[in-house]
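User:
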Amino acid sequence: MVDTARAARLAKRISSIVASAIGSEIKDPRLAYVTITDARVTNDLHDATLYYTVMGESIDAEPDYEAAAAGLAKATGILRSKVGAGTGVRFTPTLTFVLDTVPDAARHMEELVARARANDELVARQAAEAKPAGDADPYRHDDPDEDGSGQ
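Assistant: Predicted structure:
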C-alpha cells in the first residue's frame, strides 16, 4: 500500500538534513552557495531526488554549476549516511541531485511579462495620441437630418 503522506514527510526531513549538512558540516568550498530547494521521494521510499540552486559569489557573478554538481557528487555518500542516521528508516534512500530550473524559468517569465507591459504602454500612448485618418465621422449620411424623416 502506497503512503504518499509518509513519502512527503520523509522528503521534507531529508531536505532539511541535507541542507543543514551542506551549510554546516561539509567543508567543500564548491558547496558554499548551494541551496536545497525541494526534495521528492518515491512512494517505495527507496529513491530521493533533491533539487538545488546555485548562487554566485556576488550579485553580478555567474554561478559555477559544474563545480557545485561535482561537489554534490563527491559528498553524496556522506550526505546519505547523515540522512540514514537522521531519519531512522529501514532502508536509506539513494540521493540524486538535480539542478532546479524553476528560479531561472520564473525570472524569464518576469522578463517576458515586463516586456509585454512595456509594449502595452507604448500602444496605449500611441492610441491616445492618434487622430483619425479621415473625417471624424467616417460613415456616409445621405439625409441632411439624422432621424431619416426627410424634414
